[in-house]
Design goal:
- The structure holds two protein chains of two kinds.
- Chain A is α/β, with parallel strands linked by helices.
- Chain A has a single domain, classed as TIM Barrel (Alpha-Beta Barrel), CATH 3.20.20.
- Helices cover about 35% and strands about 15% of the residues of chain A.
- In chain A, α7 crosses α9.
- Chain A starts with about 20 loop residues before the first helix and ends in an 18-residue tail after the last helix.
- By secondary structure, chain B is an alpha/beta fold.
- Helices cover about 10% and strands about 25% of the residues of chain B.
- Chain B has an eleven-stranded mixed beta sheet with strand order 1-2-3-4-5-6-7-8-9-11-10, with helices on one face.
- The chains are: A alpha/beta, B alpha/beta.
Chain lengths: ~450, ~220
Amino acid sequence: MAEDQPAGAPRTLPIQSATFTAEVNAEIRRAAATGIYDIRGGGAKRRVPHFDDLLFLGASVSRYPLEGYRERCDTNVILGTRHAKRPIEIDIPITIAGMSFGALSAQAKEALGRGASAAGTSTTTGDGGMTPEERGQSTKLVYQYLPSRYGMNPEDLRKADAIEVVVGQGAKPGGGGMLLGQKISPRVAEMRDLPEGIDQRSACRHPDWTGPDDLEIKILELREITGWEKPIYVKIGGARPYFDTTLAVKAGADVVVLDGMQGGTAATQDVFIEHVGQPTLACIPEAVRALQDMGLHREVQLIVSGGIRSGADVAKAIALGADAASIGTAAMVAIGDNDPKWEAEYRRMGTTAGAYDDWHEGRDPAGISTQDPDLAARLDPVEAGRRLRNYLKVMTLEAQTLARACGKSHVRNLEPEDLCALTMEAAAMARVPLAGTDWWPGKRGQDF
Amino acid sequence: MQTFDLESMGLRDLNAALQGQGPDTNETSREVVNPRGSHALAVGLDAPLDVTVHGSTGYYCAGMNSRATIRITGSAGPGVAENMMSGTVIVEGDASQYAGATGHGGLLVIRGNASSRCGISMKGIDIVVGGDVGHMSAFMAQKGNLVICGDAGDALGDSIYEARLFLRGRAKGLGADCVEKEMRPEHLELLAGLLDRAGMNARPEDFRRYGSARGLYHFDIDNAY
């Protein structure tokens, strides 16, 4: 305000920029001070159209609901029916996504195995090989085949129940992995054939194949090594889901794992997490359309991940055409990640419970994203596994509740017709009607 | 010696027969005829077999080999002996891209030339190439030894970790963080042993050694491109 303004005149209030917010300015100052981009864990934190923007319609006069406590609503899923001699059957339509030993403590990996096994589902290795703790506690274990090939060996490959060829992940489609030196403990270094304490870089592309034609031959090799027994999954990030799904299936995938941009990572650049890839909601219909165009929907199974938090999310993903959903971040939260009981320690690190994402620094007070023996010892894998089992059971009950309300005797029978959207964006992405209408943007035969 | 003819049997039957061989056999010799460039030949073996493939192979021959000795009398397609754990693979001709990729152990001998990315992400394997190697060989090589009796293409040893590179000829260029290092007596001894095991007629004194400057081991803004 000008100094010559009369005393008592109305003053203009300070206005914070909607473009240069406090968070933006803080990041500019941090970048200017350090000269390095921000690295963090987790998935996209920005608001994007998501399952919250969809609702189930439920049953009414025109639809016949099932009685919640009397009539069956099955939840089992068989994965790998296309080519594998030994498909996997899981009891619930929820799996545990790939997370590495290295990114997570051995206790956390064991807890994930215990919880998944108790709930009748599978867990998945990560970029660091298979640990005895995880294999020992996982009745169904999916072995990830990643560009780095850290710890990859045929013996573990044969011990796996399925193989997941990772082409990309939702947090960073087109990006490689990183594990900073704080977490390269002697055991992690030995498993990865790396010097201790270095900042480990993982390649963004596989070292011995490029493109879908090569991938087909790579899958042939993996099948030949394992006697055509194991289902072969191909995991893709949410980049171009129609074409990527088509090419993965052409290459011979039994299962496509589709990870949207809300999917987490152990560590990568924040700019990658927030600015590359598509929301999970936008990816599912495109992947389903690809499977339908090939006449392979339900014969090649689709697992969807990226921001799955509840049985409602699982049911909505299945209604859009997925066979199952997969959780990573939510599983970490279930076993204790970002728990408010560690608030004092989060505060000392300059963060707060719920926002802690410096997983790469290895100082996780919950003992999950760390290799510090003292911190890791805080996590009781038996108790944490029990919490994960409870959470998976609740999610399953929620999905069953919604499926019964829509008159379905199996959650797999949920369909897009059971849904409506709350926003234009969600309607356009999910291709279900905007609530109160029979229309969605882009619907064929109906101009806006 | 048991002979498998790929003209009359399928790939699955061949691999199943080779993989089904127990570790205690005293009849170890096998030969494969009419490979016709097939992919994924003799993969995942885990017994001390001695397999000779008469002809040239496609992708990933001898992939993930453990303990077996596999000899290819022709040339090998991409990814020969990828992720080998132990044993020996010998290519009498040339090898395509990614030879020995991510190998953890064993010895890969290529008597001819190897194409690009030979030894990419190697994790303990020893590779001896009689001729030249293509660009980006030993990219992100972690452990093991790559011996090149001829020349190397551009960007040799880019982003290398702790693997050792021995080059008799010239490199068109070195990759990021790859530098020439002193050839000490222990390296000459190591190299002599590798050349001997590979049956290569070359003098260790004619080679130069390359490895990591370790400048990329920790993130530094000044290393960004």
